[in-house]
Amino acid sequence: MTRTLVTLREAALADAPFLTTLWKDTLRRVDRQEQLADIELVIKSAEESAECRLLVAELDACPAGAVYLRVTTMSGLNLEPIVQAVSPHVLPEHRRRGIGRHLMEAAVSFAEEVGVHHVATAAASGSRDANRFMARLALGPLAVLRVAPTHVVRARLTAQQPGLQRHGGRQLGHVLAARRSMRRAHAAREA
User: Fold this and answer.
1) If the chain, 191 residues long, is cut into consecutive pieces of 10 residues, what is the mean pLDDT of each piece?
2) What would the CATH number be for the domain defined by 6-142?
């Protein structure tokens, strides 16, 4: 049995098409050219920053996966520094060959290098394999990130508002009472 060789290197602009394909489900929902431009900006930003790294994993000199590493804080309120491993991803045909482990090892090494004591990542909620892999590495859930389009959240908030705001300043009870009163008056006139 021959062993495959996994190597990691920093991403270059020439990797943008590969990264756009690899992360197509993670990128903004625009045409491929705009996604490619976004990835090129991320690559340039990572090259210029000491607090970011964009690494490409190669399997036998062929791009097979990648991860974007950045130093940030635990949250907007908890200012403890963490290294966030953003979208550690491996092409489906190259999975189960140690590439994901190499990507996460790179995240831990980067955290140690910059003196940060925590590593964080996220996996799609529906990806059982990715979540199990992260759990095996001792990465437990801290929070659930929920996302929806703004207009959908606005519609739901409006639907759940008390009658006072939904009916032009009139409470739903008052509207219904006025309608009942008008029906009674109309019935009395007909009788």
Assistant:
1) 80 98 94 97 97 96 96 95 96 94 97 97 88 93 89 91 59 75 82 72
2) 3.40.630.30
